[in-house]
Design a protein that fits this description.
heterodimer, A: 349 residues, 2 domains, B: mainly alpha
Chain lengths: 349, 337
C-alpha cells in the first residue's frame, strides 16, 4: 500500500468512525446532556455526578432539593404533594457546598422558574471544602454552552457504562427513568447493624474551640457559596434543613473533642442565614425521639426513608423551624440532649 | 552553530518537543529547519509519523494512565495496602513512568516526522538493561547526553583519577535528581543512582561475570526501588511503601475503592468480567513486562515500518481506542459516605 493512500484512508476512516460514534452518542444522549429522555431508549438512574446536570438542565420543575446522601431516600412524590410543587432531587453523596452551588447554578440557568430550593445542610458542608467538589466532577456535563461536548460525545467509558446499559435495557423492554424519585440509599437498618459499624474514637485530650481556630474562615467560605445564591435569587425561597444524625455521631464528636466547636459553628452559620428574608431553616439534629433510637439508622449518620418522610412532614407543618429568637435555645437544648445521654450504657448494651 | 532569528525561534518553540523533550541540540535541529528538501510533504514520513503517534498515544492513554490509577491510589493509601496492592503500586509506577514518558516521546517524534523533522531517540528499551550504566544509556538518552556533555565532561569526567571520576558521577546524578524536582526524594533518587553507578565501576569485572538473568534481576529490582523514591511524596512515604510490600499481609484482593476506580476504563471493565480484577492486574503487569522486554521498541519498529494493511489496522484501533478513552469517566463512582 502506498504511503499516501495508506495515510489518507486512515484519516478518512478515523474521522468517519468518530463522527458515527459521536452521532450515536448524540442521538442516545445517555446522560441527558441535550434534552430529556429519547423515546427510543430506556434510561436509568446513573451516578449522581453524571446524571444530575442533565436532569437539572432539561427537566421541568419549580422546586429543587439538594444535599448529601441524607436526601437519597427522600420521597419526591411526597414532597410534591405536601409542598404543592414539582420537584427534582439532586443529591451528591458526601457533597460539599461547592457541589450544591455548582448544580444550583445549572438549575437557575436552565430556564425553570424555581420557587423553592430545599437544601439539606449538614456539618460536612458547613465545615467542608468550599472550593472543591467531594469527587472531581465531569465538568463538560455541567457546561450549558457545550464547549467541551467532545469529551462527552467521544467517550468510550460513557458509552460502555451508560449507553450500553440503555441499549440492553431497551432490548429487554424495560421502562425506566433517569430521575431518582424514591429510595436509593440501601443497606441494613437497625440498632445492631448501626452499633456493629460504629468504631468509637479514642478520647481526645484536647478540646477544639471554634473562634480561636481556623474554622470561622472555613464556615465563612461555605456560607459565601450559599449566600451568593440566596442574594442572587431573592424570588426563590431557600429552605435549609439540618438532618438528624444519630447520637453515635455526636458521641464521636465529643470523643474527638470537636462537639463544642461544631455546635458553635452551626450556630454561627444559622445566625448568618437567618438574616435573609427568603430563608427558612429547620433543625432536626436535636430531635431526641429520632436520634436516640438507633433502629432508625444503618450507621452513625444515615437514617431510613421513614425519617426522610417524617422530616418532610415536619417541614411542611412548620415544625422545628429555627428563628432568630429560638436559635440559641435550640442549640442549647441539643447540647443538653447529647450531654445527658448515657453513651456508656448504650455502647455496653 | 549560526542560524537566523526565525530558525532560532523555531528551535526553542518547536512544539512536539517543547514540554518534555527529547532534548534536541541546536546542531541536530537547525540544519533540518534550513533544509529546503524537508519543506515538502513526504507521505512516507506522514504515514510513519501517524503510526508512531498512535503508538505513543496508546502508551499514554491506554497503558500509563491505567497503571496510574493503581499508583495514585497506592501512594495515597500506603498504610492500608496489602502486600499484593503495594507490589502492584510499585511495579505499576515502573510501567506508568516508562509508558507515559516514552509514549510522549513517540508522539513528539511522530509529529516531528510528519513535518519531516527527525527528533533524537530518547528511549531504547531501558528495562532490558543489565546494569545501571546500561540503564542510563537507554533511559531518557538525550538527558544523559546533555548531563554528560555539560556537567560530567567539564568536571573532568574520568580523566582526573578514579576518586574524582566517582565524585563526578555522584555530582551528575545529584544534579539529575535536582533537575527532576527540588525535594529530598529526588535528591535521594539521584544519589542512589550515582552510588550504584560508582559501585558498578568499582566492581565491574566481578559484576560482568554474573549470569545475565541475575544482572537483569538486580538492575530491574534496583530501578523499581528507586522509582518508589521518585514517586513518593516524602522519604518516609517511600520507606513505608517498600515496607508495606513485605509486611502488608498477603491477600490476592484489591480494595473496593481501588476496584471502583479501575473498573471505570472500559477495557479493564470488560477484562474484569472475564478474569476478575486481581488476575487482570497480574496479567497487565506481566503483559507490560513482556512488552518492554520482548517487543521491538518504537525506534526499532520504525526502521521496519511499511505502510501495509496490518499496520493500518493496528494504527486505526490504537488511534480510535485512545481518542475515545482520553476523556474517560475519570471521577470516583465510589463513595462510602
Amino acid at each position: 500500500m502506498k504511503s499516501k493512500k495508506w495515510t489518507i484512508t486512515m484519516l478518512l476512516v478515523i474521522v468517519l468512525s468518530l463522527t458515527v460514534f459521536a452521532g450515536i452518542m448524540y442521538w442516545m444522549d445517555p446522560l441527558l446532556h441535550y434534552g430529556t429522555e429519547n423515546d427510543t431508549f430506556t434510561y436509568y438512574e446513573y451516578g449522581e455526578m453524571y446524571s444530575n446536570p442533565g436532569i437539572a438542565m432539561h427537566y421541568t420543575y419549580d422546586a429543587v432539593m439538594v444535599g448529601t446522601s441524607m436526601i437519597e431516600n427522600t420521597d419526591v412524590d411526597l414532597c410534591d404533594e405536601l409542598f404543592g410543587c414539582k420537584m427534582v432531587r439532586l443529591p451528591y453523596s458526601g457533597g460539599t457546598t461547592y457541589n450544591m452551588k455548582t448544580i444550583l447554578d445549572v438549575c437557575f440557568a436552565s430556564g425553570n422558574e424555581i420557587k423553592t430550593v430545599f437544601w439539606e445542610l449538614d456539618e460536612f458542608q458547613i465545615f467542608g471544602s468550599a472550593t472543591e467538589p467531594r469527587y472531581p466532577l465531569p465538568d463538560y456535563l455541567y457546561r450549558m454552552d457545550h464547549r467541551e461536548d467532545l469529551s462527552y460525545l467521544l467517550n468510550l467509558d460513557i458509552f460502555y457504562h451508560y449507553g450500553m446499559n440503555n441499549i440492553l435495557g431497551t432490548l429487554r423492554g424495560e421502562m425506566r427513568s433517569a430521575e431518582r424519585r424514591g429510595e436509593t440509599l440501601t443497606g441494613t437498618f437497625g440498632a445492631e447493624a448501626t452499633l456493629a459499624g460504629y468504631s468509637r474514637p479514642e478520647k481526645s485530650a484536647s478540646i477544639c474551640g471554634f473562634y480561636n481556630s481556623a474554622l470561622p474562615e472555613k464556615v465563612d467560605a461555605n456560607l459565601c457559596n450559599i449566600e451568593i445564591l440566596i442574594q442572587t435569587h431573592p424570588e426563590t425561597q431557600f429552605v435549609f434543613f439540618m438532618p438528624p444524625f444519630s447520637v453515635l455521631y455526636w458521641d464521636a464528636e465529643i470523643r474527638n473533642g470537636t462537639f463544642e466547636s461544631t455546635m458553635d459553628g452551626v450556630k454561627y452559620a444559622l445566625k448568618h442565614l437567618l438574616e435573609y428574608e427568603n430563608v427558612q431553616i429547620f433543625f432536626f439534629q436535636g430531635e431526641k425521639e429520632i436520634i436516640t433510637n438507633l433502629n432508625n439508622y444503618k450507621d452513625y449518620s444515615h437514617y431510613g426513608p421513614w425519617i426522610n418522610n417524617l422530616t418532610t412532614q415536619y417541614i411542611s407543618e412548620g415544625r422545628n423551624q429555627v428563628t432568630k429568637d429560638n436559635v440559641e435555645q435550640l442549640i442549647c437544648d441539643m447540647k443538653d440532649t447529647i450531654y445527658s445521654f448515657d453513651f456508656e450504657l448504650l455502647l455496653k448494651s | 552553530m549560526p542560524c537566523g532569528f526565525g530558525e532560532y525561534l523555531l528551535y526553542v518553540a518547536f512544539f512536539p518537543k517543547l514540554v518534555q523533550g527529547p532534548i534536541a541540540q541546536q546542531k541536530e535541529l537547525i540544519p533540518q529547519f534550513s533544509d529546503l528538501g524537508r519543506k515538502v510533504l513526504n507521505w512516507d514520513n506522514v504515514a510513519k509519523g501517524l503510526s508512531l503517534f498512535a503508538i505513543g498515544l496508546a502508551k499514554k492513554v491506554l497503558v500509563a494512565d491505567n497503571f496510574g490509577k493503581i499508583v495514585d491510589y497506592g501512594f495515597g493509601h500506603i498504610s492500608s495496602l496489602n502486600s499484593f496492592e503495594a507490589m502492584l503500586a510499585v511495579l505499576g509506577y515502573t510501567f506508568q513512568i516508562y509508558f507515559d514518558f516514552s509514549g510522549y516521546c513517540d508522539m513528539a517524534v511522530g509529529i516531528g516526522l510528519m513535518f519531516n523533522i527527525e527528533l533524537p531517540q530518547n528511549f531504547n528499551s531501558p528495562y532490558k538493561a543489565l546494569s545501571i550504566s546500561d540503564f542510563w544509556k537507554r533511559w531518557h538518552i538525550t538527558l544523559t547526553n546533555f548531563l554528560t556533555r555539560y556537567i560530567y565532561i567539564p568536571l573532568g569526567g574520568s580523566r582526573k583519577g578514579k576518586i574524582r571520576g566517582y565524585l563526578n558521577i555522584l555530582i551528575v546524578f545529584l544534579v539529575s535528581g535536582l533537575w527532576h524536582g527540588a525535594g529530598y526524594t529526588f535528591i535521594l533518587w539521584g544519589l542512589m543512582h550515582g552510588i550504584a553507578m560508582a559501585l558498578e565501576r568499582i566492581t565491574k569485572s566481578g559484576y560482568e561475570k554474573l549470569p545475565k538473568v541475575i544482572r537483569w534481576i538486580l538492575t530491574f529490582a534496583f530501578i523499581n526501588i528507586t522509582w518508589v523514591f521518585f514517586r513518593a511524596g516524602s522519604v518516609t512515604d517511600a520507606m513505608a511503601m517498600l515496607k508495606q510490600v513485605f509486611v502488608g499481609g498477603w491477600s490476592f484482593a484489591i480494595n473496593a475503592e481501588l476496584t471502583e476506580t479501575l473498573l471505570q476504563p472500559t477495557l479493564i471493565s470488560i477484562a474484569n468480567r472475564i478474569l476478575g480484577l486481581p488476575v487482570v492486574s497480574v496479567f497487565a503487569c506481566a503483559g507490560a513486562l513482556l512488552t518492554v522486554l520482548l517487543v521491538k521498541n518504537s525506534t526499532e519498529w520504525l526502521k521496519t515500518f511499511k505502510p501495509c494493511a496490518g499496520v493500518w489496522v493496528q494504527t486505526y484501533f490504537l488511534l480510535i481506542l485512545s481518542i475515545l478513552s482520553v476523556s474517560g469517566v475519570s471521577t470516583f463512582l465510589y463513595s462510602n459516605f
